Amino acid sequence: MEEVEETYIMIKPDGVQRGLVGEIISIFEKKGFKLTGLKLFQCPKELAEEHYKDLQSKSFFPKLIDYITSGPVVCMAWEGIGVVASARKLIGATNPLNAEPGTIRGDLAVQTGRNVVHGSDSPENGKREIDDNTALRLHFGVITPSVEIVI
Ligand code: RTP
């Protein structure tokens, strides 16, 4: 049976500036996932570098850090069965020009360097990215229990 997981979804500064927050949240809600943490956040340079540390050696790394720190982001924790892989499908390919229509990047973006949203690539990274974001995790205590899922 598939596991209930959690994933870290971040609406990047271009998504916030373009007024896409509601639309993106709605996509995950309509799919059936549960929002368990949410905050608007100006990411400091050090945290952006930590979040993207696996890409440190890439030539685009400095531009990526400038982009992520260029304005507020929306940090979210989402929970559900298979949410990590499903969220990546809903988000679409890294390069929006290769992303399928019907995905967030496929419908709402053009450039890799302005691709609107981030989603964890594994359940382990989902947990780590939510834990790194201490203030987000604090929200968990006040969330009401989920409605029982009957399959
Ligand atoms: P994300 O981590 O943001 O969800 O993106 P991803 O897994 O689809 O892609 P990844 O390879 O992890 O890259 C992270 C972010 O770096 C920027 N990027 N720019 N060639 C480039 O200019 C380039 N390649 C990647 C994108 O913002 C990408 O989402």
TrEMBL record:
ATP binds at residues 12, 60, 88, 94, 105, 115. Residues 4-137 form the Nucleoside diphosphate kinase-like domain. GO terms for biological process: CTP biosynthetic process; GTP biosynthetic process; response to hydrogen peroxide; UTP biosynthetic process. The active site is at residue 118. Keywords: ATP-binding, Kinase, Nucleotide-binding, Transferase. One of its GO terms (molecular function) is ATP binding. It catalyses: a ribonucleoside 5'-diphosphate + ATP = a ribonucleoside 5'-triphosphate + ADP; a 2'-deoxyribonucleoside 5'-diphosphate + ATP = a 2'-deoxyribonucleoside 5'-triphosphate + ADP. Its cofactor is Mg(2+). InterPro entries: NDK-like_dom (IPR034907), NDK-like_dom_sf (IPR036850), Nucleoside_diP_kinase (IPR001564), Nucleoside_diP_kinase_AS (IPR023005). Its EC number is 2.7.4.6. Gene3D superfamilies: Nucleoside diphosphate kinase-like domain. It comes from the Eukaryota. Belongs to the NDK family. Major role in the synthesis of nucleoside triphosphates other than ATP. The ATP gamma phosphate is transferred to the NDP beta phosphate via a ping-pong mechanism, using a phosphorylated active-site intermediate. HAMAP family: NDP_kinase. This is Nucleoside diphosphate kinase. The lineage of its organism: Eukaryota, Viridiplantae, Streptophyta, Embryophyta, Tracheophyta.
